[in-house]
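Re-run requested by the PI after the first attempt was lost when the workstation crashed. Everything re-entered from the original request form. Ligand of interest: copper (II) ion.
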Amino acid sequence: MLRAKLLLISLLSLSSLAQAHDWDLAAPDSHAPIGVMGDHTHKTGELMLSYRYMNMDMEGNRDGSNRLSAEQVLNGPDGSSAGTDGFLVTPLSMTMEMHMFGAMYAVNDKLTLMGMLPYIKLSMDHVTRTGVSFTTESEGIGDIRVGGMYKFFDRDGQRWHANFGLSVPTGDIDTRDATPMGANSLLPYPMRLGSGTYDIMPGITYLGQSSGVWSWGAQGMATLRLGENSRDYTLGDQYQATAWLAQRINSSFSVSARLAWSKWANIDGADPDLLVTNPMNGIGVVPTARADLRAGRRTDLGIAINYLVRSGYFKGHRLAVEYSRPIQQNLEGPQLEVDSVFHIGWQKTI
Ligand SMILES: [Cu+2]
């Protein structure tokens, strides 16, 4: 938290770099690194279509900031498997892929509306105490997001806008696959495609552009869950803060570095249909079925390239990539750690 605050403060001091000039919408870095959502507003009547692909790679478990081996998760931290320590099954790795289709429309110069439709594919590898490996998969539409941005400051190469969003529970929270427990087992929390609740997403975004080659920005965003879902639980609220600095290489290319901090809480309530402990011996089934082993915080460092086509048939099309890795990660575990996040995206204003 302190780190994120310091980062914001140092970025705000960059604002002294901004000079009186009109905002340049046609620079490659007039859009944030592609991993940032709701980063820019549009001019009256503009419609922007976008497609993003995200791949998040998780491998290995952690408790706090320490790594745990599969044996430690299964047999308990001391490796003895004495008493009820440990779990019958541990996740080893997980891949999360997301295809995100988006549209933005500017009602006027201040208000831009947006909608996003995600398609999610999840895959998790496990091993049991008896050494049996198995993989579960789930796939489908995630939670649809609608919202917008309201620009309330635009002067001297600096902009501020408020973000507001609503996440609609269209993602399946009853995902099933074959496991050692059965052919059509209910999958645990991280293998579900949505929150099951309406979530509000308030935020604030600051952007700056120098008249030279630099631009920067910062954004704070929260995801706040409303009520309880049909499976008697509520995912933890989530808080994110990010800041980036970009350099224009030429009129088509920009490169950037970004820090992203996030923190999320445990699940409130629990799905009564998920088996948490084996009734025969009292041993935990799998950490991913535990509502109290979901919280964490993480800071990622990302590098990104934005590319804006300046001429020819594809003039005005934008392509962007971002690759980030955690530099700090603290999980209420055992919980799978994130190893890398990759984004690639296409955007076109019509
Ligand atoms: Cu846009």
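Saved to the shared folder this time. The CA atoms of residues 191 and 310 lie 42 Å apart.
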